[in-house]
Amino acid sequence: MDMLALEGGFADPARTAAHAFRAVMAAMARPGTLQQIAGARPPAPLSPAAGAVLLTLCDADTPVHLAGAADCPALRDWIAFHTGAPITGPADCAFAVGAWDALLPLNAYPIGTAEYPDRSATLIVEMPKLTATGTPLRGPGIKDRAALSLPDPESCAANAALYPLGLDFVFTCGDTVAALPRSTEVL
Amino acid sequence: MTVQDYQAEPAYNFAYLDEQTKRMIRRAILKGLAVPGYQVPFASREMPMPYGWGTGGVQVSAAVLTPDDRFKVIDQGADDTTHAVSIRSFFERTAGVETTTKTALASVIQTRHRIPEAALTEDQILVYQVPIPEPLRFLEPRESETRKMHSLEEYGLMHVKLYEDISRHGHIATSYAYPVRVEGRYVMDPSPIPKFDNPKLDDCPAIQLFGAGREQRIYALPPYTKSVSLDFEDHPFDPSKAAHPCGLCGAEDSYLDEVILDDKGGRLFVCSDTDYCEERQAQGHRGKDAA
After folding, report:
1. 8 A C-beta contact, residue B153 and residue B38
2. pTM > 0.90: yes or no
């Protein structure tokens, strides 16, 4: 393990995580809004936003799946040191991180059960660009209509059709975070 | 308000709970927001207060508070009860957050059994303390069964209960903890708020989070979520209140407490939301019993 893995965590874990969580919560509660999130400096190729989401939500209780380019020794070491989260495959992960194409297929992830729909994976999707434009959205957390630059509206709509089961998506780009819970109707 | 030094006591982690516990609660909150009305199990911790004193709400508040927040606690609408005062001072000491009694100035409001009269905004979070999160619990005591009923959307029993109210009393006699259907899917217990408050749950701009400490459940309503109070076509939902204006501020649109004044039938109806009542009195509104 080189020294890089030891750096880039939250400087003031309790307070920084509190602010970071509020950004993630605001994103999840208001799909289609962009939130700023800060505090983490993960090694490449992970964005600061995705790093902050991992530091805020992951620990030894949450298996993490690293997809595609995200599955590199530098990132494995960083996650191991800062969160202690075990690295697993998609079938039994609580969180998965990576670019959209690397995360596919979506049916590889747990979507919860009818009695425990909360036992589903949250996908942290690294985006080259993230804007509040594009695919129109409707549902809880949205006043009338919202929009988000979704990577693949059709798969997201198929995921929403599984409600109350399904995956929840957190989109990250630079220091920006947005979310698409399964409850959101993708129009 | 006197000037205070809002500094957390250094012996505590920020907002009392350890970070691993907060992460666990935060994950539950996110799943709760993703499936509105569904009760997410969480590993509730022992808090330095007894069950029934809002341990669920306190844990949710601890997980969402940031040092920049302004925190308000109400107990049946009142800011000045033992319960509200002690939870406020708990977070003053352990999180160093600023506190307030003004609804409009608060960013996080923890509540026991009321929704503030003043309309909430998009910048606010309302945290409910919940004693019994399962709306079907008194109809079906087995958790394994109620869980199955939720998964199958089998809510006939709840309508039977409301129907039995009608057959026995001539109207739906359930007056608090009145069940709501969230986004046409989950039936949810809005905690023992009076049914007068039920319409405020619906389409609310604030994030609403519910924490049940003893029962170890967290659930949530994202902003602008549809929550419909259960009723029948011929017995529509009626958010009733006492047919009096507030004795102190004269408000006719607020939920009232009845205060017995003597043993000769003297009584006073007064806003249960103390901040709303004080605000109105400060604006010059007077009720018939105002001194």
Report:
1. no
2. yes
Return the number of other C-beta atoms located less than 10 Å from residue B45's C-beta: 17
pLDDT per residue over B147-206, tens digit each? 999 999 999 999 999 999 999 999 999 999 999 999 999 999 999 999 999 999 999 999
Instruction: Say if residues B203 and B222 touch (Cβ distance below 8 Å).
Output: no
Name the helix (H) or strand (E) containing B31: helix B19-34
B184 shares contact with chain A (CB less than 8 Å): no
The rounded distance, in Å, linking the Cα atoms of B197 and B237 is 12
Rounded Cα distance between A60 and B148, Å, is 30
B34 and A14 within 8 Å at the Cβ level: the answer is no
**Sheet of strand A185-186: strand arrangement:** A146-148, A135-138, A185-186
Within 8 A of B40 by CB-CB distance, chain A residues are 118
**Gap between the Cα atoms of A105 and A127, Å rounded:** 17
Q: Is B204 a catalytic residue?
A: no
- For residues B263 and B266, give the distance between their C-alpha atoms in angstroms, rounded to a whole number: 7
Structural domains in chain A, sorted by start: 3-27+37-186 (3.40.50.11310)
Q: Which backbone phi and psi does B233 adopt, to 5 degrees?
A: -55, -40
Report the C-alpha gap between B106 and B69 in whole angstroms: 8
